# Entry
Amino acid sequence: MKYEITAETTYHGPVTLHRIKALEDSDNVKKGDLGGYIEKESNLDQAGRAWVSDDAKVYGNAWVSGNARISDMAEVYGNAQLYGQSRVSDDAKVFGDAEIGDGGIVKEKAKISGKVLVGRAIVGGEMEAWGEQTISRGRHDDKTSPYWGDGDGK
# Structure
C-alpha cells in the first residue's frame, strides 16, 4: 500500500473526506507526508504514483490513477477520471464524466464537466468546457477558445 486514510476529516457539503498519508516514498512524496482528501479508498489508486496533495479533494466515484496529480484547492468528483501524466491544480474543478489524461493540465479556475476529454492540452484561466468534446492540444484560457462551453464557442 502506498497510502493510508488518516483520522483527520473535513466536510464538503454532506460528504466526509479523509486526509491521506504516504506509506512509502514516490517522486515528490516522502513516507509520512500528509496528502489531500479523499472520500474513500477507491478514489485514489494504490498502484502507480498518483497522488492527492495539499487541500485538494477527490470524492464521489471520481478516480485518480497512473501518475496523475491533484493539488492545491482543486476538486475532482462525480465520475471524473484523472490518469496518465495528468495534473489538476489551483482552484480547478473536474466533474461529471470528464477525463483528464495523456498529459492534460487543468488549472487556475477552469471547470471541466460532462463528457469532456482533455489530453495534451492546458486548460486554465476561467475556461469552462462541458458536453461531449475532446480538447487535445494547445492552451485554452477563456471564452475565446473554440472549446468554451459545449464546444460551439458559446
